[in-house]
Amino acid sequence: MKKFILLFTAILLFNSCLNDENNDYVNYGFELLPIDEYIVPSSFTFGEKDTIKVKYTFKNDCYSFDHVYYEYQDTTRIVAIQSLVDLDKTCTEQTTQYEFDMVITVIQEEDYIFKFWKGEDNNGENIFEEVVVPVN
């Protein structure tokens, strides 16, 4: 048992002395991106699936897609793009626009109110563009 404890302590001590500078890790952050454009259907049919197309822009090549931010608030849906930003990379300043198809399963009989996030104003308040899609 003493040999086991001595071996374990030696491994632990050896591991703690290793240089961590060579570890490969990515220093990244998250950022919400505004919706540039969107296409919504004129109406939804209850119980069926439909598609909303959204366009968004990466500011440079340090950005990558993480997921669609989609928040429920009663009959309202808030939509934005969640991105990952590589904080250590030397970035090119080339902007690139992408399109994403959001599949919506119509599970409510009330009209859907979509609030597409457009960014923030000078006071830090969120700006939304609101669209109502009726349900048949």
Describe the protein's architecture and organization:
The longest helix is centred in the N-terminal third of the chain and has 15 residues, at about 1-15. The mean pLDDT is about 90. Helices cover about 10% and strands about 50% of the residues. The strands form two sheets. Strands 1, 4, 5, 7 and 8 form a five-stranded mixed β-sheet that branches. The protein contains one helix and eight strands. The chain has one domain (about 25-135). The radius of gyration is 23 Å and the shape is elongated. A hairpin with a 2-residue loop joins β4 and β5 (about 75-85). By secondary structure, it is mainly beta.
Name a few traits of the molecule:
3-stranded antiparallel beta sheet, mainly beta, 5-stranded mixed beta sheet, 8 strands, 1 helix, elongated, 136 residues
Strand residues, percent:
over 45%
How would you spell out the order of helices and strands? HEEEEEEEE
Number of DSSP strand runs: 8
The biggest beta sheet reads: 5 strands, mixed
Q: Please state the structural category.
A: mainly beta
Shape: elongated
What does the average pLDDT come to?
Answer: 89
Distance between the termini: 73 Å
**Count of separate structural domains:** 1
> Ranges with pLDDT <50 over ≥5 residues?
none
DSSP helix fraction: 10-25%
